[in-house]
Amino acid sequence: ALAPHCTGMTVPARPTLIRTATMWHLSTTVTGTLSSPGTSALDLAMALHPTPAVCGTPTRTARQVITETEPFDRGFFTGVVGWGNADGDGEWVVTIRCAEAEERTLRLYAG
Fold first, then answer.
1. In Å, how far are 24, 45, 86 from 96, measured between CA atoms?
2. Beta-carbon neighbour count of residue 98 at 10 Å?
3. What is the pTM of this model?
């Protein structure tokens, strides 16, 4: 997903483990050089969305299987939250199990 935006990418052969107070996470640090100075952090976040953690891989096939087999629309199950500035710099993270707020109604999504 990043290849169209980057050159000289470095991807480790295996992920590393990150320990938190309640669980372990797999982490893979991918580095590269942007092909175009006009590419923003948000452009990269959107290129990666949805991640395999929430959709599966390959993305197109996984989306099709989800659509055909799940009896409901995932709606706003996932997204990205972060910041970006006028220079295109920023930091974005994947959200899972989002919520919708409308007037006095709150819908929480979990799975």
1. 16, 14, 27
2. 16
3. 0.71
Beta strand pairing status for 6-10 and 31-34? antiparallel
pLDDT tens digits along 26-48: 899 999 999 999 999 999 999 98
Taking a C-beta distance cutoff of 8 angstroms, is the pair 62, 70 a contact? no
DSSP string, the chain: --TTTEEEEE--SS-EEEE-SS-EEEE---EEEESSTT--HHHHHHHHPSPTTTT-SSHHHHHHHHHHH-SS---SSEEEEEEE-TTS-EEEEEEES-EEEETTEEEE---
Residues 6+ apart with CB under 8 A from 13: none
- Alpha-carbon Rg for the chain, nearest whole angstrom, is 16
Sign of the dihedral defined by the CA atoms of residues 7, 62, 43, 23, in that order: negative
